[in-house]
Amino acid sequence: MLQAIRYNQGNLEILDQLQLPFVEKYIPIQNSEDGWEAIKSMKVRGAPAIAIVAMLALCSELYALGTAGKIPSAPAEAQDYINKKLAYLLTSRPTAVNLSDAARKLEVLTVEAAARPGSTGQDVTKAFIGAAEEMLGKDLQDNQQIGHNGAEWIMKHAANSDTPNVAVLTHCNTGSLATSGYGTALGVVRSLSSQNVLRHAYCTETRPYNQGSRLTAFELVHDNIPATLITDSMAAALLADSSVGVNAIVVGADRVAANGDTANKIGTYGLAVLAKHHGVKFLVAAPLTTIDLATKSGEDIVIEQRPSNEVTSIKGPRQQDVASGSAALDLETVCTAAPGIKVWNPAFDITPANLIDGIITEKGVVEKGADGQFHMDVLFN
Ligand code: MRU
After folding, report:
1. Given 1.20.120.420, 1.20.120.80, 3.40.50.970, 2.60.40.10, which CATH number is that of 5-139?
2. Looking at ligand 1, which atom is closest to the CA of residue 348?
3. How much distance in Å is there from the Cα of 339 to the middle of ligand 1?
4. Mind listing the pLDDT tens digit for each residue in 13-48?
5. Domain 162-380 has CATH 1.10.1060.10
6. Which of 53, 146, 264, 301 for mutating ligand 1's site (highest number of atoms within 8 Å of CB)?
7. What is the model's pLDDT at position 239?
8. Ligand 1 centre from 254 Cα, in Å?
9. What's the mean per-residue pLDDT of the chain?
10. How far apart (Å, rounded) are the C-alpha atoms in residues 239 and 245?
């Protein structure tokens, strides 16, 4: 399985996703600063992966402090150190809630550890490290369950009675590279494929940063899943093509509000509108760590604005070097827009809940109630 995150007792490495699929290079993350930079620059991206790398980056830092005998002996001091680092890591990217969810849960845990009678600074850091390390395995298990639940729902509600298999369209990258493994929406595609009921997967290019053509296409080729890449502007024509017969669109999420409104990679909203027009099921796949009951609706979600050069340029190797099978590929950045043009580059958009048919989680698929509304709180009871 592709692994975006490699971790063992304070040794953290991430696969540099800015160089994929052309160069497969792991880079070490030794402390919170390295983690912050990797997240901000999108060397690692995807809501669950961001949260896990941030927490494990701090683990690596705490391991190193421990080895150097520099963990404060007073529990309150150790807790304060961790809290400041968490606050700093939270400033890396604003939209995905998984990061703040992880930071909040681990902060509570360190407060509890510090309050225990006779506890030391080491006990506090140990509690943090133990819980952060558990996140890695838990995310993988959740994704496998999401894949299973989503595939089952699609076969029940989106498959045609006369065709034993389905075609699915997905957007951005929600696979092994965006999580600790398997993926969310791409996990649903993987599950359909492993049950031999996937006729074909379509992935969008996902402009402007091409997480679809660089990362999802890479994962689909890697796993030998029958798949075709389209540009974002081809989705309407694909859905209109009855010989293709797309049964469902499955996307991931960076934050699902209490009413089901969903922030996900820019372009998701457009796909949901198209799905409604063409009578195609539109599904969001996300772990509980992406569902934010404290955010009432999409209006309250902060949308990250990214630099203009992500729209006006593109990075990759020369075509002839790839064609000739050259082992060492140099990546070059080329401009694709008229110099001087103004750029709008929101990284995410909000899909209103009324365009979503179901939200696939590890606990099951949430559908709207009789009142026509999602009740995401049922997942937490
Ligand atoms: O800007 P990115 O690449 O971090 O955005 C990623 C997405 O929008 C994904 O769909 C989302 O994080 C879910 S990943 C399982």
Report:
1. 1.20.120.420
2. 8
3. 29
4. 999 999 999 999 999 999 999 999 999 999 999 999
5. no
6. 264
7. 98
8. 6
9. 97
10. 7
Kindly name the residue from 16, 139, 254, 261 that is annotated as catalytic. 254
Is 162 a residue whose pLDDT tops 90?
no
Active site residue 261: no
Where does residue 328 rank: exposed (0-12), middle (13-18), buried (19+ CB within 10 A)?
A: exposed
Work out the percent of the chain whose per-residue pLDDT is above 70.
Answer: 100
Question: What confidence tens digit (pLDDT) does each residue in 91-122 have?
Answer: 999 999 999 999 999 999 999 999 999 999 99
Rounded Cα distance, 257 and 45, in Å: 20
Q: Pick the closest to residue 169 from 219, 212, 215, 221 (CA basis).
A: 212
- Domain boundaries along the sequence of the chain: 5-139, 162-380
Ligand 1 centre distance from Cα of residue 64 (Å): 30
The helix/strand/coil state of 255 is strand
Place of tokens 């509570």: 108
Please indicate whether the domains covering 5-139 and 162-380 agree at the CATH topology level: no
